[in-house]
Amino acid sequence: MVKREKAFTTTLLYLALIFVFLFYAFPIFWMVTSSMKIESEALQMPPSIIFQPTLENYEDAFINRGLMTNFKNSLFISIVSSILALVIGTPAAYAMSRFEFKGKDDLFFWFLSTRMAPPILAAIPMFILARNIGIYDTLGLLTVMNMLMNLSWVVWMMRSFFDEISKQIDESCMVDGCTRLTALLKVIIPMSSPGLIATVIFCLVMSWNEYFFALVLTSVNAKTLPAAINSFLTVHGLLWGEMCAVGTIVMIPILVFVFFTQRNLIRGLTMGAVKG
Questions:
Q1: Is the omega angle on the peptide bond into residue 46 within 30 degrees of 0, that is, cis?
Q2: Are 241 and 37 in contact (CB under 8 A)?
Q3: How many domains does the chain fold into?
Q4: Which of 84, 97, 205, 207 has a beta carbon 3.0–4.6 Å from 146's, enabling a disulfide?
Q5: Does 19 reside within a domain?
Q6: Looking at residue 270, what is its pLDDT?
Q7: CATH number at residue 102
Q8: Which of 149, 152, 143, 142 is nearest to 215 (CA)?
Q9: What are 5-19's pLDDT values in tens digits?
Q10: pLDDT for the residue numbered 107
Q11: Does residue 54 form part of some domain?
């Protein structure tokens, strides 16, 4: 009797997991299949299940419309801004974890409070400033904005990972002749590498999907791929097939990166967890 109840419970659990998976996977399936349909089939109701796949939408979007440049912009901004956020934020997180000073908790909370305000509060002054000093619609401006956006998260996440590493390890390294910086670079950061990878993934996802700043602070030259999707809303209607093609390409790099780093991602996310 107990075995039957356990088997019944396990079956219900698996059915629930399958339902949740299908619920979240269906929009992705719909987008990918729509990207490989001609425009008439993509808008057809009821939707056509059997169709002749085509890459025409990808060719129109990335070659004829020139969105490959926007793809390169997104790639550059995401990678460079994430690296800068880690280079600046990791030492700050280490200092927050290891040193005691007046106003430490207030400063630490201030890092997070920068993400509480709506982005429009920063976008409008930055737009006016960028136009006045001539850096509007440049890769450098959007890279710095994405770096600042991720910096608070890097400090918060990396501090929790550093807190999991005993301070005695730092002291042992310095007894052996290491400086504080050498101990951080050669011992502490390698030990917290899973957390570092989790933070990198988070920064990349946030930068890659960032839309508002890319919409307000760019026009043509530095426009990223998510912001370029607006071009498919024309006076003749919505170019559904091409928009789905761009959406598919936006999704693929992050999925591939997470797939190859998922083991370290899981370790990183659990490394900073509270253990009881």
A1: yes
A2: yes
A3: 1
A4: 207
A5: no
A6: 60
A7: 1.10.3720.10
A8: 142
A9: 777 788 888 899 999
A10: 81
A11: no
Q: What is the reported pTM?
A: 0.81
Whether 16 is in a domain gets the answer: no
d(CA 125, CA 140): 17
Residue 222: inside a domain, yes or no? yes
**Residue-wise pLDDT tens digits, 132-191:** 998 898 999 999 999 988 888 888 888 888 888 888 888 888 888 888 888 888 888 888
Cα maximum dimension of the chain: 77
- Cα–Cα distance between 87 and 68 in angstroms, integer? 29
What confidence tens digit (pLDDT) does each residue in 25-81 have? 888 888 888 888 877 777 777 777 777 888 888 888 888 888 888 899 999 999 999
- Does position 268 have pLDDT exceeding 70, yes or no? no
Dihedral angle, C-alpha 133, 139, 143, 149, nearest 10 °: 70
DSSP sequence for 229-274: GGGGEETTEE-HHHHHHHHHHHHHHHHHHHHHHHHHHHHHHHHTS-
What six digits make up the tokens of 36?
A: 């490989």
